[in-house]
Amino acid sequence: MGTRLTVIVDNVAVGDWTGEWGLSILAEHRGKRILVDTGASDLFQKNMERLGLSLAEVDYGVLSHAHFDHANGMPCFFRENQRADFYVQEAAEENCYKKPQVFYQYIGIPRHVLRDYAHRIRRVSGKYLLTDGAWLLGHTTPGLAAAGKRERMYRRKGLWWRPDDFAHEQSLVLETDKGLVIINSCSHGGAANIIREVREAFPRQSVYGLVGGFHLFNKTDEEVRRLALELTQAGTAFLCTGHCTKQRAYDILHQELGDRLHQLQVGLVMEF
Asked: pTM higher than 0.90, yes or no?
C-alpha cells in the first residue's frame, strides 16, 4: 500500500479552490490518516469536504509547530473529530511571539486550546513512533535560537523573552516504497538541517523527499540560492514547497533545482 499526501490548505489555490496563509496536509499511510496542521482557520475542514475527505475519520493529528497559521483550526478539529489525539512536541506552549518593531505580537496556538483539550493532547519528544512506518522527530541541531533571533521570533518564559529555538517544531517522517518522506510545514530549523537530522535518526534508510514550507519569503536571493546548493548537496530526489517559501523564492529554487522541485497548492496529491 502506497503513501498519499493531499494538500488541504496552502497559500496557493488555483481554479475555484480557496487558500490562506497557512498549511495543512493529510497523509494516508498504511491504512491510517494523519493530518499535519490545521491551517489558520476552519478552511481546512471545508476543503476536506470538497476533496471528499472525512475529518471525522482522521486517526492522528500532528502539530508541526506552535504558530497560529498551523494551529488556528485545532478547535474545529476537536469539534468535528471525536477520536483522534493531537501530537505536539513537549516544548509546545501558548507562548510564541514575534517582535517586528517595538511590541511583541502573539503568533501562537489559540489561547486555552492546550488546556481545554488536554485530554486529547499528546506530548512527545525525541524520535517517536506514531504508527506503523510513521515517526515524529524534533530538532537535534544545536544553536537554533540564533535563527529565532534573526527572525525576531521569541518565546515568553515567565517574565523573560527568549529567542525561539524552535524546540516546539517537529517533522513527520514516513517510510515509503521510495524512501523516507519528510513533512515539516515551515522548516524554521532549516530545510537542510532537517534532512540531516532525519538521516542521522534513520542511518540505514535513504531520504527521498521533503515536503513543506522553507521559510524563505524574507530571505535574500543569495540566501535562497545558498539553500538550493545545500539541497542539491543533500541529494534529495523530491522537493515540494510552498506556504512561507512564497513565489519569488520558489522561482529561484526552481532555477537551481529544476524538475526535482514542485509547488504546493490546495488539492495537490502526491503519491510515493
From this structure: yes
